[in-house]
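Why do we care about 3D structure at all? Because function follows from shape, and shape follows, mostly, from sequence. That is the central idea of this module. The next example makes it concrete: a single protein chain, its amino acid sequence, and then its structure expressed as tokens.
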Amino acid sequence: MVKHIFHAPAASGKTTYVLNLARQTAVSGQEVRICLPTGLQAQAWRQHLATTGGAFGVHVLTFDKLVTACINAAGEAYTQLSDPVQYRLLRTVIARLPLKHYAPLVAKSGFIQVCQQLITELKSALVTPEDFAAAITQIDNNTPRLRELADIYTSYQNQLRTQGWADRVGLHWLAVEALRERAPDACRDWPLLIVDGFDDFTSSQMALLTLLANRVDSCVVTLTQAAETSYPRYQRTAEMVAAALHVTPRPLPETAPDSTRHPALQHLAQRVFAPPTAEFEHSEAVPGEAVVTLREVADRPAEARAALRWLKQRIVWDGVAPDQVALLARDITPYRPFIQQAADEFGLPIRLVDGQPLSQSPVIVALLALLRLHLPLIETGAPDLPRRQVIAAWRSPISDGTAAKRSSRQPTPIFWTPSPGSSWSSVAWTSGKPPSLPVPHWRQQTRTTKKRWKRTAASPGQ
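And the structure:
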């Protein structure tokens, strides 16, 4: 059980070093597991590995995938809830609780999301419902605001235990518990575990990493080294990892010279987050003209427009190739529609590294609209099937693979079987017959639906 913690400044070759280490280990026929914070970093790691020649037996994982690998190695299986299912479960749990302080917010979707985030943070910090309730009791048990939050957390976790389910962060708990109590020999056959790219760890992540570091043959953790005055978070993370693994961080054996960074950017990186001190105030400034430009705009659309206009100028005026310019954002999600709109106006072909959200795909939008047609009515439980949305679904060019070959005046409908009690006026096929239903059964269902609609329309008050 060899443990190493290497620290080095940003862009100094940490990933390159551990990549070469992974390839050397894989050449000897041993498997290597690399854990990275995000899916984008895992994708970049795979691309970097491929460009350097590739290797067999190298598993590039996010931390959630590493948790799954640990649970599989322990021989256990759990049902993980997706985010939408977790949201619905939490909404059901909250609706059943006799809340008073939060009663006006129970039906609000934002309240469910805030509770979901709170539970995720508590689980990431290894705070159980019992610990949370005990802490609130010590603070002030007469405060309904905190006590009801503890009731929500406790009821939600009890429901998960009753059904044998687990949410994403709950799997971290189960992995730590399985390795610590029920599978003492799991993961001991792992030759090399590399943890790269993290600048912070939650308590649950640190607990699992500590268990694995004491079991695998070799564990290597790389951390970013920076001045404590500028980046205190990196210093705190290094101290936490060193205390958990009982290893002293040491410099990277092979450090790449930082010769590609402009002096102005190097100066900015050292001082942008540093507090104002006499040392920095009287330090010599580095000329940064034409290297760093700071622009202040009114809102996000203006930010995206200004950034893309500057990129367009570099392409047209300076002759820079389009694939040599990039737009970076800490979180691209709120900027995505503005970037796409401005890029269309400027005629800039763009490629989003994290791809397009699935919910914005025309096929998925049409599928979701079709599924919403069958949402049951509260009164009867029968599908709603509103007339306008049904006709829109029939006329959708995505409803059938041959629709794209037809003109817009001859749409191909989506065929379905009307169920008893459907509140829909008529069934009017625009072309052909339902291929999946026998003709007599289809006609009988059509007649039944028409008769029920006529009786409903003739009822008073309809």
